[in-house]
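Q: Given only this backbone (81 positions), what sequence would you predict?
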């Protein structure tokens, strides 16, 4: 799981029981982003999404998804808000 928002330590510990967790800045570019299958996001760029070629699920932390770069999200990726 990759998060573009800072997780509270206790939340991160819970999620780490189920998955590898990375926050923005902890991965080193497109090669690492290609490993991402779940995205917990606030602001995200199209370039970041393009590098996530294994992405299957996006959970937005803010109300609404109008600001997502939809043209960079494949049709088979589930988006929740």
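A: Predicted residues:
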């Amino acid at each position: 799981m990759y998060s573009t928002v800072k997780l509270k330590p206790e939340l991160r510990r819970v999620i780490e029981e189920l998955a590898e967790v990375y926050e923005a800045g902890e991965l080193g570019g497109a090669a690492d982003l290609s490993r991402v299958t779940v995205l917990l996001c606030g602001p995200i760029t199209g370039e970041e999404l393009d590098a996530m070629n294994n992405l299957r699920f996006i959970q937005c932390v803010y109300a609404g998804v109008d600001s997502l770069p939809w043209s960079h999200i494949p049709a088979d990726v589930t988006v929740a808000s």
